[in-house]
Amino acid sequence: QVQLVESGGGLVQAGGSLRLSCTASGITFSSYAMGWFRQAPGKERGFVAAIGATGTGKKYTDSVKGRFTISRDNAKNTIYLQMNSLKPEDTAVYYCAVGLRAYWFPNTEADVGSWGQGVGSWGQGIQVTVSS
Known about the structure:
The protein is mainly β and 132 residues long. The chain has one helix at residues 109-115, and strands at 3-7, 10-13, 18-25, 34-39, 46-51, 58-60, 68-73, 78-83, 92-98, 126-131. It has a six-stranded mixed beta sheet, with no helix packed on it. The chain has a four-stranded antiparallel beta sheet with strand order 1-3-8-7, with no helix packed on it. It starts with a strand and ends with a strand.
């Protein structure tokens, strides 16, 4: 059984930083891309960032490029999302997700869309609130 546990969320002022972590169990972690999605109040869940199984491939949604960095430590079965220069519009519940299959990476927007449908393994979500 796959389990994903997120941590590191909280309340921060605009311009501040937070680092989210997601630790996985029940999978061969180093074989899977991992990603972060978020859902703001009243909005659909949306893609934030993804990282390939080996950590060399990365993808970001345009609104976080240059501010957020995704990384992973395969020895610790953990991914991270370093969030800098946070804005109030970053306020959301952030979810960690496992890639759809081993050695898969969301190369296209269609891939991202499929991933975001909720199939597969997801964390319980963690709140990030950015005050203005």
